[in-house]
UniProtKB/TrEMBL annotation:
Domain spans labelled HTH iclR-type: 40-81
Family per similarity comment: Belongs to the ROK (NagC/XylR) family.
Descriptive protein name: ROK family protein
Region ranges (Disordered): 1-28
Lineage: Bacteria, Bacillati, Actinomycetota, Actinomycetes, Propionibacteriales
InterPro entries named in the record: ATPase_NBD (IPR043129), ROK (IPR000600), Tscrpt_reg_IclR_N (IPR005471), WH-like_DNA-bd_sf (IPR036388), WH_DNA-bd_sf (IPR036390)
Pfam families the UniProt entry points to: HTH_IclR (PF09339), ROK (PF00480)
Length: 434
């Protein structure tokens, strides 16, 4: 079962750990049951539909245990049984598969120029997407949350039309986030400091009964790039660029948020001590030389250049830069080349420290990737001590400016895979004949 082992080995380990601690009184049977339910559900997502007998063989559990687990998952609406297994020896078993309509998760994002939402079902299929352009820097935190709540209410209405509600919602924001408290410690580009974002959201949403979490947008963008079961994506760094620059770390297939969730603030690595003042108040941060604002300053030809127009959103500005590059505009190509070299310089620092298998350029950096890739790779090779850049490769995200909300939705629905008991169990009742 090589195609599924990378995704479920950790869950198997948790099951074994649960049994071990049970023996010493540290965990109860409910904990082990939840771990086993998670193990089966994740195996079906990552390894595909199979019979109960095949699941038992793949997971190393006895058939009676797997049969009981599948029955409970079915009663919770998370799996369904369908056709007979093909190619089976003897009596064919019934195929078990994930039921997409069994649970839904909602992702949301607050960024400098927009708020957005995305709802997905248990298979990751998108059932609702909403986005509104808004200059969040010109608003108080309370006003920004009002804009996001408007979108969230529309998304919740979309789910209500399907006869359901979310199990969890995860909100990404461009700043330092204390994940345990849902507090935004610092969001330099938003002008926020010490904002209780989770508290504001809960109050404005009427204290919802589903899980509600807040996380850093770049960490969530990293989750969106870490494809489950893909060995090439088990150790990656994601550099996510919009107005500011953030990052995310995925180690051995799992996001690494750091002690309090502050890991990945790559944009504030010091690279140019004599350079420009950053939005955070310090001088020479990486963000000042690779952020979109700096690229626009380099590429724009005068104050009246359309790239400086407040009427164009970020996506339109990046599209215009790409159009000029494709037309061979020398000023634009020179600007892209300079930014690419700075990206490579910082990427080399990160590679010397962490040696990831891949560095993914996300957000606007992914959108301009074809114009800067050569410079990035050249600086990476020159700046990394290990031969062949330590085996680190550069990849371009295909998610554009929506990477963070993609990741937020993925984290929201993954809570169900972590703990399937979040979804209520519905046991069919038998009618009593009088």
């Amino acid at each position: 079962m090589t195609e599924v082992t990378s995704g479920i080995e950790d869950a198997m380990s948790q099951v074994r750990d649960g049994w071990s601690t049970t023996a010493t009184g540290g965990a109860d049977q409910g904990t082990v049951r939840r771990a086993n339910l998670s193990l089966v559900l994740r195996s079906l997502r990552e390894g595909g539909a199979r019979s109960r007998a095949r699941l038992a063989a793949d997971l190393g559990l006895n058939k009676a245990t797997v049969s009981s687990l599948v029955t409970e998952l079915r009663e919770r609406g998370l799996v369904r049984e369908g056709s007979a297994e093909r190619g089976a020896v003897g009596r064919p078993g019934t195929i078990v598969e994930v039921d997409g309509a069994g649970a839904y998760g909602v992702g949301a994002e607050i960024n400098v120029n927009h708020v957005s939402t995305r709802a997905v079902d248990l298979t990751g299929a998108v059932v609702s997407e909403r986005r509104t352009s808004v200059d969040t820097r010109g608003l108080e935190p309370d006003e920004v949350v009002d804009r996001l709540v408007e979108l969230l209410q529309g998304t919740l209405a979309d789910l209500a039309a399907l006869g359901t509600a979310p199990v969890s919602a995860v909100v990404g924001v461009a700043g330092l986030v204390d994940r345990d408290r849902g507090n935004v410690a610092v969001a330099a580009n938003l002008g926020w400091q010490g904002v209780d974002l989770a508290g504001l959201l809960r109050a404005k949403l009427g204290d919802p009964d589903y899980l509600l979490e807040v996380d850093n947008e770049a960490n969530l963008a990293a989750v969106a790039e870490a494809t489950p079961g893909d060995p090439e994506r088990r150790d990656i760094l994601v550099i996510h660029g919009e107005v500011g620059i953030g990052g995310g770390i995925v180690a051995d297939g799992r996001p690494f948020p750091g002690r309090r969730g502050y890991a990945g603030e790559f944009g504030h690595i010091l690279v140019d001590p004599g350079g420009a003042v950053c939005g955070c108040g310090r001088t020479g941060c990486w963000e000042t030389v690779i952020g979109l604002s700096h690229l626009i300053d380099l590429a724009a030809d005068g104050d009246d250049d359309p790239l400086r127009s407040p009427l164009l959103d970020l996506e339109a500005k990046v599209e215009e830069i790409s159009r000029r590059a494709a037309a061979g505009d020398e000023r634009t190509l020179a600007a892209l080349s300079e930014v690419g070299r700075w990206i490579g310089t910082g990427a080399a620092v990160l590679t010397n420290v962490l040696n990831p298998g891949m560095i993914v350029l996300s957000g606007y950096l992914g959108e301009i990737g074809e114009w800067i890739r050569d410079e990035v790779e050249a600086e990476l090779a020159a700046g990394v001590l290990a031969p062949d850049a330590g085996g680190t490769r550069i990849a371009l995200s295909a998610l554009g400016f929506s990477a963070a909300v993609h990741g937020a939705a993925a984290v929201a629905i993954d809570h169900v895979y972590d703990d399937p008991t979040l979804v209520p169990r519905v046991v069919p009742t038998l009618e009593v004949m009088s």
